[in-house]
Amino acid sequence: MPAQTVEKWDIFEAAFEGPSEGNPYLDVAFDAVFRHKAREIRVPGFYDGEGTYRLRFMPETEGDWTFETRSKTPALNGKTGSFSVTAPSEGNHGPVRVRNKFHFAYADGKPFLSFGTTCYAWTHQPLEEQEKTLETLAKTGFNKIRMGVFPKDYPYNTNEALHDVYEVVNGKRDFDKPNYDSFRHFETQIGRLRDLGIEADVIMFHPYDRWGYCDMSEEQDYRFVAYIAARFAAYRNLWWALANEYDFMIDTKPMERWDRFFQILEEDDPYRHLKSIHNGHADANYDHRKPWVSHTCIQNPNVKNTQVWRNTWGKPVINDEPEYEGDIIQCWGNLTPEELTHRFWITMMRGGYAGHGETYSHPDDLLWWAKGGVLHGEAWKRIAFLRQVLEEDVQNGFEPIGPENLWPWHRISGAKDGDTTIIYFGEHQPVIWTLGLPKVDGNYQLDLIDVWNMTITPLEKVKAPENHPIRHGEIMRPREPDAAFAVELPRRPYLAVRCRKLS
Amino acid sequence: MPAQTVEKWDIFEAAFEGPSEGNPYLDVAFDAVFRHKAREIRVPGFYDGEGTYRLRFMPETEGDWTFETRSKTPALNGKTGSFSVTAPSEGNHGPVRVRNKFHFAYADGKPFLSFGTTCYAWTHQPLEEQEKTLETLAKTGFNKIRMGVFPKDYPYNTNEALHDVYEVVNGKRDFDKPNYDSFRHFETQIGRLRDLGIEADVIMFHPYDRWGYCDMSEEQDYRFVAYIAARFAAYRNLWWALANEYDFMIDTKPMERWDRFFQILEEDDPYRHLKSIHNGHADANYDHRKPWVSHTCIQNPNVKNTQVWRNTWGKPVINDEPEYEGDIIQCWGNLTPEELTHRFWITMMRGGYAGHGETYSHPDDLLWWAKGGVLHGEAWKRIAFLRQVLEEDVQNGFEPIGPENLWPWHRISGAKDGDTTIIYFGEHQPVIWTLGLPKVDGNYQLDLIDVWNMTITPLEKVKAPENHPIRHGEIMRPREPDAAFAVELPRRPYLAVRCRKLS
Q1: Where is the DUF5605 domain (chains A, B) (predicted)?
Q2: B174 and B29 share a domain?
């Protein structure tokens, strides 16, 4: 039995000394074959500077494993080793996968309801700010964060990055020479997020650039993608986000290149982490039906269209930017907290997943959405409450009651999972309600959820109003459904009703 | 010079005795040719019961007119008369027409900003209720009302109508025998609305019926349309609404029949009053591009799509039902007043016109949207305020700043007319703003409009934030426009900024 052990879905790492002369990043290739019983998995290795080469592997099966390296470089060829994979420890649920077509779960089967936030450039801020970000994240209910490998140049983001991502040679970045410290730091933070139970949705490319990262050559782009695949893929909490707003770079990175990025990940990420790509303009979505896309990422404020997006692409929908809470001049970043909370509820109650961002102006330009730090807003608390509400009942994923183009589900949002139905009224304030409630009476627990005040209070069944006869056009119009009972509600916005069937 | 005078756009009426035996409604036809100088206008007449036949004519040209009747019925043939048309009196602006492609104006050129409400069956309620409705309307800012010729059978509308619209013979309605009292009463109320400055948007057909009106034969339908055209068209405040929710009747009244209704109006309404038709399902719009449709009527809660509807049909858009303020179980009738006010502002700031309805539950089922009476809500006051704000500046009609799919106008709503720009933020709460404000400095009056609290307060110009350089994707992305100045705003929802250029 091998001496070294690693737990399932954790990282096995091996390092090798090899050539440091020339440019190993360009010139030296090596990979390894990992074997368990009859299984063989090809795992690319990567150069980590100063003559050190590394292999990282995330085992998904318990038991004994061996590996053997392959390279044209003799020092990196034929290296072997073995290790034993133990059961995962508590809190290690493995990577997140698509489950039930429109939903997610960890590899161990635990449902994953995506509650993401965005701090595009948090790993490029001073270290003490990064500590604050992690402290804040530990207090929130977010379980995913969007973050860029490259730093950000944008309003409120004019400071220099903590690290250059590539070496600066004679005052110019050399995109053939990674700054290994920068990648080391980035993956350290991926690991710290993992330890907080947070998925790292790693954005590869974005247009908000003054350093030239955005204008690397095609070859440099491909090498970058392969490099971070080899380097980061063994982190179980990793998601691949090919771009923030890829369409704003389509002038220099054509569609074929984006397709190829996906293909490189298919080749070099043996674990097939979740992969998606995010648009800028609402009408410039990538074709998420392509086979290498695991889920749909979009930005779109029209959250009542969530089912349309599900139907269009047939995959889970994450609306990363249903606009952000804040008060800045940029029109995507000045929603009231009530409205962002509302959009989260609508999205989740229509079978999708929404993303958070916060952009309150700050005297030192410390805005959460890019730099992290601390939160100043109000929506994040309600989002944590929503997560808690849904996680109490989730089994397969909340599916919209729908159909979304028929009464009342074109106006009201509601979803079911197992024996639990939740109906979210939002801007609607009926004082009595039946639709979506059970058609056969039984033992039900009924609760009123105040999504803003974060309270849950019991509701009583009352007699359902009688159906008014429809004497004309019966086929054409949905009648008031026969519900076994009704609930009475206070007349105010931002309420939901939860109905649980008790055994 | 003729002894009889009538003012321009008022009603000239002449009555004739004719046969009362048999069924004159079916058997007797007559019309007249009205002449002024070289003009000849054919005007259909109508039977008004008890041997009385009437001709109604709305003259649109001042001066001397004559007419001569034509009929196969000798008593109604060759009758002549003359009258003189005088200038319109104050408050008489003539009928409303389409102007500037997406807008309306009275015939005298005064802009008409449509601020409609809905009381489907108000003329079918007890007379004292009808008086209340008129008293209420006199206090509001509504200048259009949707109302049905036929009574309504629907939840909260189970009472009997004031009049049968057709005679009841042996316990059964005979749709070949109009109840002339019913039509007389209806047109009296059209006239009273006219005297309040309110357009009567007369709904011909609707599916909410228990009396059989909805199931008249094709021939009876056509005769009904021709009859009310002959009878009502001379009212200058008349609009033709072919249906409320025509698609819920498409099983018995196919599309060809709806087209034919429009054609009958084209033939029998010599003044070409505004004509439209209103859908039930959001995806069942009539093809408003058809030449006989003057403007687009829809019901749709997604008011940020207003420009899409303008572009689709190329005509003024009236969204009669962006959902209603209220608290009833029906999902279209339980918006908060804040939300309905918000949807009005968005619609108007995107170049459309919204419609009001109010459906608060009431112990005696007296809901404004169907029965009229009194208003219980809050939105109507804010809608009157919006009308007042826009009428202060309207010249050609408020056109969206747009384009609606580009930053920031896909998220923020704003419109211009003449030298006035209004930007409505709604659910957005920026503390500083530039977009849509003038690019060249000058003498501007700047105001903050609180659309809910109905206040207007002056704003100061402040220095515009500097543009952050866009270093990549410049073609693809709208940059922050160079505005000459900015305004600072309080951080709260439901605000608008008005900018007027002063000479």
Answers
A1: 409-499
A2: no
